[in-house]
Amino acid sequence: MVRNIGHGMAKNITFKFSAPIETTSGEDITELPYFKHAINFMAPHTDIAAV
C-alpha cells in the first residue's frame, strides 16, 4: 500500500526497488504502472492498495 501520511499534497512520487517484490502467487508488483511510471500527486491522508 502507498499512503500519503502528510497534511499536504504529495507530488511527483517515484519508487526504487533493490529487488522485485512478489505476491504469494508469484506476481511482480514492482511492475504495476504507478510503481514503474510514478504518481503525479496524492491528496493528504489517501492511500492506494498495491494488490
Please provide a written account of the structure.
10% of the residues lie in helices and 24% in strands. With 51 residues, the protein is mainly beta. The protein has one domain. The protein has a two-stranded antiparallel sheet. A two-stranded antiparallel sheet has the order 2-3. The longest helix has 5 residues, at 33-37. The protein is elongated, with a radius of gyration of 12 Å. 0% of the residues are buried.
Question: Which secondary structure elements does this structure contain, and how are they paired or packed?
Answer:
Elements: E1 2-3, E2 10-13, H1 33-37, E3 39-42, E4 47-48
Antiparallel strand pairs: 1-4, 2-3
List keywords for this structure.
51 residues, mainly beta, two-stranded antiparallel sheet, two-stranded antiparallel ribbon, 10% helix
How much strand content do the residues show?
A: 15-25%
Q: Helices and strands: which structural class?
A: mainly beta
- The termini sit apart by 8 Å
Q: What is the H/E order?
A: EEHEE
Please state how the strands of the largest beta sheet are arranged side by side.
Answer: 1-4
Mind describing the biggest β-sheet?
2 strands, antiparallel
If you average the pLDDT, what whole number results? 90
Share of helix, binned: under 10%
Whole-number radius of gyration?
12 Å
Number of strands: 4
Q: State the low-pLDDT regions, or none.
A: none
Number of domains: 1
Q: Tell me, what's the shape?
A: elongated
Number of helices: 1
